[in-house]
Amino acid sequence: MTVCWMRRLAAGLKEKSLRATLHGLVTLELAGALDAATAEMPVS
Predict the structure, then answer these.
(1) DSSP character at residue 4
(2) Origin, by domain of life (predicted)?
(3) Is there a contact between 31 and 38 (Cβ–Cβ < 8 Å)?
């Protein structure tokens, strides 16, 4: 994602929609990080 694209997206969305989008992205990032961390843990 380029900064220009993000600015265009932010300008086109309402604040509430932007917050929901950012929240969704953060949630996906955390879920992905959690999956990666869990996958690396040895199963006993």
Answers:
(1) H
(2) Bacteria
(3) no
- In the chain, the number of structural domains is 1
The confidence score (pLDDT) of residue 25 equals 87
Contact 8, 16 (CB under 8 A): no
> In this structure, is residue 33 part of a structural domain?
yes
Query: 12, 4 in Cβ contact below 8 A?
Result: no
All residues at 6 or more sequence positions from 18 whose CB lies less than 8 Å from its CB, including other chains: 9, 10
Type of residue numbered 39: A
Residue 32 lies in a domain: yes
Has residue 7 been placed in a domain?
no
The pLDDT tens digits of the residues spanning 14-35 come to 566 778 888 888 888 888 888 8
